[in-house]
C-alpha cells in the first residue's frame, strides 16, 4: 500500500511510503495504546513491528496512536526510531504532527515534553495552515481578546470549522475550557457539528483524561453538551460514542451516570468490537468498570473473542482485573485461538498480574492449567517462550506459584465432580430417577473421563 505524506524541509514536499497494514486490534497497537513500552520494544527488536506499520482501520501509525493516547515515553521512543515519519497522514489527513500541535495548543503536555515536541516537529508551520478564526485563537490562547466580547460583537464565525473540521466548540471541549463551552452554547453554537473524524464536542469533552474526580464545572458542561447533542449515541469514524470515550479516559462514575441518564447506550461497540466496558481497561479505570456493571453493562461481552477480563490480562490492568473477578466475571471463556485466561497470562501478564491471579485462584478452579490452544501449546509452554513481556525472576516466581495453585484447584474441582458423579450413579441404582438426579448425572457425565485421568 502506498501512503502519501507531506513534510516540511525546503518547502512543501510529497513523499510516498510503502506501508505495512496491520489489524487495528493487533498486539502491537494494543500495547502502544495502553503504554506497555517494554512489550513494544520487544516487538520492534523482534521485527514483529516496524515504523512503517499502519492500522487497517484508518491508516494510523504507532506514533499517531501514542500521541493520541498521550503516552509520552512511548511517543519519544517511536519518534526516535529510524524510519518513523511524523508527517505520515492517516486517511482523514491527520498526521502525528497534527496531534502533537493539538496537544501543545491545549496545554496538556508537561513543559519538558512540550519543548521536545516543538523541537522535533514542524508545529508552527502546521498551525499556519489550520486557518483558525479569531474565536478559535481566543480559545487556544493564541489571542488575548475576551471571548464573550468577541461573541457580543459577532457570532458569524461561531460555527466556522478550521481546516481539520474543528469548530470553536470542539476546540473548547478539547482544551477543557468549560467556561468557553458554556459561553459558546449560550450564544448559539451548534453541538451537532462534527470534525473530519466524525467527533462532536461531546466526544472530545469526554475523552480528555479528566482523571478520578472531575470538577463540578466539567460535569455541568458535559451535561449541557449532552442535552444539546441530538444523538447521544452518535459514533465517530472509529465507531466510538461519547460514553465509550468517557469510559476509556475517565474514572469518575458521575460522568458515566450523566451520559447514561441522557440516553447513552451501554451496548454499543466500536469497529473492533470493543464496548465501553472494554475501553475502561486501557487506562485501568476500575471505578468506571464497576459503574458500568452497576448500570447494566455485560461484564462478559466478547470483543474479537476477548472478554473484558481477558483484556485486563493482556493490558496488565491490575485494578480492573481485581474488580471484574470480584464482580464474578466468567473465567472459562476461550478466545478465538482457544486461549484460556491462563494462556493469556502466560503470553502477556507481568508479575503483578500473575500475583493478582494467584490471589484469586479459587475462581480459576474451572480452568484446566494444562489445556492446549489451537497451536497445541500449553500455558506453561507459552510463558517460558513468550517475548512480549520481561521474564525476570519475580515474574518466574509468580508464574510458578500461579501454576501450582491452579493445578491444585483444578484437581479439587475434578475430585468434587467425580464424587457427585458417583452419588448420581448410586441414586440411579437405588431407583431414584427424579429430574434433579438426572440433571446432576447429565452435568457430571461430560467430565467423567477428565476426572478419572486426574485421579
From TrEMBL:
Ranges: ANK repeats: 164-196, 238-271, 272-304
InterPro entries on file: Ankyrin_rpt (IPR002110), Ankyrin_rpt-contain_sf (IPR036770)
Keyword entries, A-Z: ANK repeat, Repeat
Pfam families in alphabetical order: Ank_2 (PF12796)
Gene3D superfamilies xrefs: Ankyrin repeat-containing domain
PROSITE patterns, per database record: ANK_REP_REGION, ANK_REPEAT
Protein name: Ankyrin repeat-containing domain protein
Source taxonomy: Eukaryota, Fungi, Dikarya, Ascomycota, Pezizomycotina
